[in-house]
Amino acid sequence: MFTGIVAAVGEIVDVSPLRNGSEDAGVRLAIQAPDFPLESTRLGDSIAIQGACMTVVEFSGDTFKVDVSRESLNCTTGLDAKGAVNLEHALRLGDSLDGHLVSGHVDGMGSVTRFEPVGESWDLRIHIPRNLAKYLTYKGSITVNGVSLTVNQVDDDDNGCEIRINLIPHTVQVTTLKNLQAGSPVNLEIDMIARYVERLVGLRHID
Fold first, then answer.
1. Do 137 and 173 have their domain in common?
2. What is the CATH number of the domain that holds 71?
3. How many CB atoms lie under 10 A from the CB of residue 175?
4. In a domain, 22, yes or no
């Protein structure tokens, strides 16, 4: 479990194919993270990387490694090449819940339609695919590339919806969101409360 509050930005410095690079194989990522608290990290720990929960299989100094399955690669963006990534340790009992409850399981990918400064803030707009659009609501929560954000506007269309998010300068500065531009794909995780509500409402007829 995570909160969507990014602890540090790391850098994927190596991408090595697993199982001799067969088509259905995953990759092993080496992530350099000098600003991430690796001193408290153990083998087997969970770390959210661009919003996707991964297991630490090796670490040394300021670098750790994770294995990413082919299924995860097919369902996410930003985990198959070198580049900057958002990082967050799994939530521990007693930690402050400053964002919202995040599972680290990416539900799908969206596409940035606008990312521009407006006054002192930034206007981020993302097109959400139809299968996830029903879970988005005004002032609801969504995780974008591992960052907990609040939806300010939802505009439905035939292919899903476009959401509008206001980003404060701090969020832009300390996450990889600063690298977004129109057309960029992003990892999305919907609010798990919305998922449970849908399930409960859908099963009412059983009682």
1. yes
2. 2.40.30.20
3. 23
4. yes
The span from the CA of 185 to the CA of 155, in Å, is 19
Report d(CA 73, CA 167) in Å as an integer.
27
Q: Count of CB atoms within 10 A of residue 182's CB?
A: 11
Looking at the structure of the chain, the number of domains it has is 2
Q: Which residue has the tokens 């985990």?
A: 79
Cα separation, 28 vs 138, whole angstroms: 38
Q: What is the pLDDT of residues 96-106, one digit of tens each?
A: 888 898 999 99
Residue 179 has pLDDT above 60, yes or no: yes
Question: Which pLDDT belongs to residue 207?
Answer: 55
Judgement on whether residues 196 and 119 belong to the same structural domain of the protein: yes
**Does residue 2 lie in a domain region?**
no
Identify the CA nearest to 78 among candidates 144, 165, 24.
Answer: 144
Neighbours of 141 (CB within 10 A): 21
pLDDT tens-place string over residues 28-75: 999 999 999 888 889 999 999 999 999 999 999 999 999 999 999 999
pTM of the model: 0.93
Torsion angles phi and psi, residue 13, rounded to 5 = -105, -10
Residues 112 and 181 grouped into a single domain:
yes
* Domain membership of residue 27 as a residue range: 8-89
End position of a domain, from candidates 57, 89, 121: 89
State the sign of the Cα–Cα–Cα–Cα dihedral 92, 97, 101, 103.
negative
Q: Phi and psi (nearest 5°) for 4?
A: 80, 15
pLDDT at 39 (0 to 100)? 85
